[in-house]
From TrEMBL:
Source organism (scientific name): Bythopirellula goksoeyrii
Domain Flagellar motor switch protein FliG middle: 110-183
Annotated ranges, domain Flagellar motor switch protein FliG N-terminal: 2-101
Subcellular location: Bacterial flagellum basal body; Cell membrane
One cellular component term from this protein's GO annotations in UniProt: plasma membrane
Keyword terms of this UniProt record: Bacterial flagellum, Cell membrane, Cell projection, Chemotaxis, Cilium, Flagellar rotation, Flagellum, Membrane
GO BP, one annotated term: chemotaxis
Gene label: fliG_2
InterPro entries named in the record: Flg_Motor_Flig, Flg_Motor_Flig_C, FliG_a-hlx, FliG_M, FliG_N
Pfam families on file: FliG_C, FliG_M, FliG_N
Name the UniProt record assigns to this protein: Flagellar motor switch protein FliG
Flagellar motor switch protein FliG C-terminal domain: residues covered: 211-318
Length: 329
């Protein structure tokens, strides 16, 4: 019996709070490894359980351990790692569940591009929709402009796809790439997938694609652009950019928009206002009380639209990479 299994049985047997306390002392890789083992637990004989955790025998049921499984693993990881759990959860899910095109996740994007470049745009769209956004962006950038447009339109329009079709495409591609390396309908693609890809694409690819796409489907471009930058992204702005935004947004818009904002973003806004303006805005926020989420989101979207217009006019540059761009003398 290996140590990972012992650890998984222990976690499955302990009360939730104690299991989380143990997980929180491990690093991310250790959490991932033991959580995968925990997710694979289907049932442990009481004799094995007693052998592993004799000191906890009195507080555990006398029968088999039934508290393992993927849901239990996800629950404990989320409680232990909090906002840092996404990457670990994704790796656990890929290890336990049959994820379409999972074999591509460890293949270089340029190798994938070589094999899919000549496929029908619908096939490429299906594949990209099941890959991480960064990989999808790299493959998209390597396609000819005309084909990029066709693929993006199909990703945006994609909804439910028959698992038989997904399996057929996956098997065919896996056979071709073999030298390199219960079912339900799969939801993939959509406008959000396009926005994620473009968010991690280089600026030149993004602009060229959106400009060309706007000639054929301006409404789709507007929808993509709305998803590429969201209200909370302002927390990444430097003070100069934040002040540009403040000059172009009425103070009356901020009170409603900030009702649903994070403390970090609120401080970013207040920190770039005058003392008087900041105090007035704080008073307005307190005076508003509870408001409808839809009203908050609508006001936030108004500010996002202003930011996008400032970007289009060249008055503001949204640095998606969150890194300072090098300056040339």
């Amino acid at each position: 019996m290996n140590d990972l299994r012992k650890a998984a049985v222990l976690l499955a047997s302990l009360p939730e709070e104690e299991a989380v306390a143990i997980l929180s002392r491990l690093d991310a890789k250790q959490v991932e490894a033991v959580s995968i083992e925990l997710a694979r637990l289907k049932g442990v004989p009481s004799e094995e359980q007693d052998q592993i955790i004799l000191q906890f025998a009195e507080s555990n049921p006398s029968g088999s351990v039934e508290s393992g499984g993927l849901d239990r693993a996800k629950q404990l990881v989320q409680m232990a790692l909090g906002k840092n759990a996404n990457s670990t959860l994704d790796n656990i899910r890929q290890s336990i569940e049959e994820v379409p095109f999972s074999f591509l996740r460890h293949v270089d994007s340029q190798n994938i591009l070589t094999y899919v470049a000549d496929e029908h745009p619908q096939t490429i769209a299906l594949i990209l929709s099941h890959l991480p956004a960064q990989t999808g962006a790299e493959i998209l950038a390597g396609l000819p402009t005309e084909r990029q447009l066709s693929v993006v339109q199909r990703v945006a329009a994609m909804g439910q796809t028959s698992p038989d079709i997904i399996h057929e495409v996956e098997q065919g591609l896996e056979r071709r790439m073999s030298s390199l390396m219960g079912q339900s309908f799969e939801n993939a693609g959509g406008v959000g997938a396009v926005a994620e890809m473009l968010n991690v694409s280089d600026r030149s690819t993004e602009r060229t694609l959106l400009e060309n796409l706007s000639q054929e489907d301006p409404d789709l471009v507007e929808e993509i652009r709305r998803l590429m930058f969201v209200f909370e992204d302002m927390v990444k702005f430097n003070d100069k950019d934040m002040q540009i935004v403040l000059k172009n947004v009425d103070n009356s818009q901020w009170s409603m928009a900030l009702k649903g904002a994070s403390p970090e973003l609120k401080e970013k806004v207040f920190g770039n206002m005058s003392q008087r303006a900041g105090d007035m805005l704080r008073e307005e926020l307190e005076f508003l009380g509870a408001v409808k989420l839809s009203a908050v989101e609508a006001k936030q979207q108004e500010i996002v639209d202003i930011i996008r217009r400032l970007e289009d006019s060249g008055d503001l540059e949204i640095n998606k990479g969150a890194e300072e761009e090098l300056l040339v003398e």
